[in-house]
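Run log, item B.
One chain of 455 residues. Sequence copied directly from the ordering sheet:
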Amino acid sequence: MLSTALETTKLPQIHTPLPGPQAQAIIDRDTKFISPSYTRSYPLVMQRGTGAMIEDVDGNVFLDFNAGVAVCATGHSHPKVVAAIKQQVDEFIHISGTDYYYPHLPALAQKLSELAPGDDDKRVHFGNSGAEAVEGAIKLAMFSTHRQKLIGFFGAFHGRTMGALSLTGSKARQRSGFGPQALDVTHVPYANCYRCPYNLTPESCGAHESKGPHCARIIEDLILKTTVPPDECAAIIVEPVQGEGGYVVPPASFLHTIRSIANKYGIKVVADEVQAGMGRTGKMFASEHFDFVPDIIASAKGIASGLPLSAVIASAELMNWPPGAHASTFGGNPVAIAASLVTIELLETELLTNAAVMGQYLLEGCRNLMEKHEIIGDVRGKGLMIGIELVKNRTTKEPAAPERDQVEIECFHRGLIIQGCGTSTIRLSPPLVIDREQCDFALQTLDDAIGAVTQ
């Protein structure tokens, strides 16, 4: 049963100092028994949730604009998702799809194959997490090309398992202490036009021309001629919209140029759609915004409304490895797949449209905040994947990292759940069920929080 507070409000209600007494007791216990490697920005201790609202253990209610890090696409405990889970639990909870058959696997695989960009027939391999999807995608690229070298991008986050970590180029602390990387990866700059490492602009770098932007051309002009022989390069791994790196939206020509270079040299293109996919940007896959067709897609996070599930989607011709080449005991768990099928139905019938409409409204509101607050250097996004980058000075663009962290905490104490990404960017990744009133509250809270930090 939901508490009265969650049943009667869609806006925050804060009743205690934060953290409250029950929350503090749990945090103390957590500190004693949980790995200190976890990252927590503020002391939220969740008890229950519905839609875009969260109630903590002390009865405080928050508006969630993070969705479990872009996972709860349909909101917390959507009744249709919950009903599908309960029905499947009553039937059976698990049997390994690696070793046996059940109707859920081909049903969801067919749906994902039909939704993924590109007209060719596709196949799907199921796993449990984004990192596992990335690992599977890379294994498939290596297997199909008989090559081992990879090209990734600075700012990218692909996971923390050893293979995915080799591709991750987000923060030094994620690699520190883990020795040599497992995979042979060369990183190049992502198309972050706000912080171009070459000091170019979209007008001067080629982004508006058929040749494509310099940051993509460098792959062919330099990398393939020096450190990565093209006949040894298995794949280029790219996020169509970069997530942990700062919610960075590239020009379409960046992705098109990567596609063209890959085609020329027989290199596979892997799109990491773990965070940007499943409706987050207002389309099922972020690649669709750019008319970009990768060879392999890694999907997870929002795919099952909070249950552990991931998918590697590739052409049937490409995903033609033999039995035993790659598998997963829990990947494609029937309960998670039941949740995913309903999630996709909700996305197609309601939430893609809502994400696009509310995303545009929220983006315009954030740009209005930029006119008011000098600390906001850039606002960018697609759908409900929006980044607000804070800077100490708009001319120098020096990151305002401590201020960003303070804004997060100020929002928390006002009942708004947000999270940072990149060096000094606030990410807004709410459930795709939010409405205009909740957007207005979030914008006002951000306004108040930024004002409190900068006064």
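Observations after the first pass:
- The CA atoms of residues 163 and 182 lie 6 Å apart.
- The chain is about 40% helix and 15% strand.
Flagged for discussion on Thursday.
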